[in-house]
Amino acid sequence: MSRFRITAILLLVFLGVTNASANTLVSTSPISGSTLSVSPTNVTVTGQVTLLADAPDANTITVTDPNGVRVDDGTITISDVSATVGVRPLVESGMYTVTYLLASEGEVPLEGSFTFKYQAPSVISTANPTPEPTQSQTPASSSWGTNFFVIVLLILAVLVTVGLSMYARKLFRDR
After folding, report:
1. Residue 49 lies in a domain
2. Res 125: pLDDT
């Protein structure tokens, strides 16, 4: 092969090929396909590419219950590569569907859907606390050794203060 061909091939390989990175789904919260027993307060979708926070009309996340009724509150928050939407308290058991369309700069929008199952508690009962008597606390015994040590330290502190004041008075007089 000639040098020209080799140079042309190398230029095509290094300069002619563009990076084919598309914004793909990295994670979801709640996890796709999971079963929840506690109603989530929000749903988060995380991609690979930074999302456009200044394009509120381009970003949508909808959460629907088993009957197709929206249960999200419509407030989408974009934080770098993640988008979060608030969810009203879930009351009905079944499969919930999350559909998302999120815009990212210079990329094809991140689009898709996933489901999670919510299993509502069968009976919600209020806990009735029953008071139980507590054992009486015995006061901690004082140690004479500790008391003596503290008293000696206080006396030494007073003596040092008196000694320093006398030394300062002597220095002031000798001046």
Report:
1. yes
2. 63
175 SS3 class: coil
Closest C-alpha to 62, from 79, 47, 83: 83
Same-domain check for residues 104 and 54: yes
How far apart CA 166 and CA 103 sit, in angstroms, is 79
Distance of CA 44 to the CA centre of its chain: 11
Residue 128 placed within a domain:
no
Report long-range pairs for 5-10 (Cβ below 8 Å, ≥24 apart): none
Q: What is the pLDDT of residue 80?
A: 85
Q: Output phi, psi for 168, to 5 deg.
A: -65, -40
Return the structure tokens found at 137: 């606390």
- Token pair for residue 27? 């994670």
- Which stretches of the chain score pLDDT less than 50? 17-20
Give the contacts of 99 (CB within 8 A, at least 6 positions apart).
Answer: 60, 61, 62, 64, 112, 113
Q: What is the pLDDT of residue 147?
A: 86
Do 170 and 87 share a structural domain? Answer: no
Q: How far apart are CA 72 and CA 58, in angstroms?
A: 17
Predicted pLDDT at 140: 63
Query: Model pTM?
Result: 0.57
Tally the domains of the chain: 2
